[in-house]
Amino acid sequence: MRYKLIALDVDGTLLNDDHHLSDENKEAIAEVTRLGGQIVLCTGRSPQNSIPFMEEMGLSGYVLGHNGAATVRVNDRKVLHQFGLDARGLDPYIDYCRQRDIHFDVNTAFDMYVDNVENLTQEANFMYEHFRIMPASLPAWDDFREPIVKFTVFTQSDILDEAQREWGTWTQQYNILRSGEFFVDFMHPEASKGNALMNLAVQLGIPQEEVLSIGNYYNDISMLTYAGLGVAMDNSPLEVKAAANAVTGTNNDSGVRDALVKYCLS
Description:
Pfam families: Hydrolase_3. By secondary structure, the chain is an alpha/beta fold. 32% of the residues lie in helices and 22% in strands.
């Protein structure tokens, strides 16, 4: 099989719009694994709520969580690498969000914190339930014992558009990525899915040309362009399709299965 390391985005790629994993995708992944391919999830999610999909597929290996900011081994949940960011530099962004009543969360590799867990909006509660993760209340920076790897802002898309325009005029010290219509993520400047995938491939001794990646959104572009073959979902924005080498079906039509059959199993 030409591709030895296959990196899959989760939401909008591996999962359909109801956040379910199709039997078709599962079966193709099982066959790729049987033939010696190694599947990794490369996602904006936390390892905490992405590892269960690896377990559902019967896979060990690795999860590149938080858009590549934390690389975790599935079997023992060990954090193998993480890009910790400057937490105190987030203060102006947190002030901006508080002044405008914009929701945000702060993430270590496995844990998530919000401003006040008792005052979550209905929309935020629904989101966390949907993504199967429960946050705690944000402590003082000095009380953190683990590196902070991601700061996420969640609000309406037009409000995010305006916030990104304003933040673009500020001095930049983070990698600021639009990871979904309603999400913007802040990470260490070197943290990306592409860098995490490159680091893992080097660690596993897999050449770049034997890496395949499949994704659907702007935060996937770095891994699509790193891989020997980058495949965009048909539900991707045009800029993401332009960055890829090929396009497969949509996430609702098991496009991951189609790509794996075409490029790994044929």
